[in-house]
Design goal:
two-stranded antiparallel sheet, ten-stranded antiparallel β-sheet, mainly beta, 214 residues
Length: 214
Amino acid sequence: MSGEPMKAGQPGTRSSAEHGNALTLQRRELFKMGVAGLGMAATGIGFAGETSRDGGLRNYDPIRTELVMNLVVTCSTPETMGPNNNSKDGVREDFWPIVGGYFEGPSIKGDVMPGGADYPLVRPDGVVVIDAFYRLRTHDGTNILIHNKGLAYPGDGSGWGTYRLVPVFTAPQGPYDWLNKSVFLSTLVETPAPMAVAKGPDENDRLIQVHRVF
């Protein structure tokens, strides 16, 4: 090869018009491919040929849970909110002062501190909301706040019903700050007799089991 540039009109070269037409055709093909890809995404059709509409729901990221803590929370006799139970968000008939208890798990244990309360609410649509705020103190003196809120579902009249709650913790930096970095779900059930700590007829326990979500 001579190394000289090829000139327009020589064999193997294209005119400006031909070159432009070729680019236009390439752009059209690319556009068609892009539109086809968008259509596939919009209809839920992937490159593997799977569909999300015809085959029902598919769990692409299964949720796992781990039981990380049992809390036995002791309340005293409930107190009324006032002569009128109606509030701006529903009916608040009474609240349950928290007077003690304890908690324990594989990497945490301590006491439930007196001073908090559970403030249940019956919404205008009849749904019962649990809204508890209180303080935990670990065995090594660390104070942790817990705000446990969720819904109560009535049972058949023979038990406590079903509770599904979402506790949110506030812990200082250190060995317990993992509580700040995860999502938790909890249940609330009647405390088994061997775990109960309530004293006398004016106190009552509930067992809250906290599950970490992965």
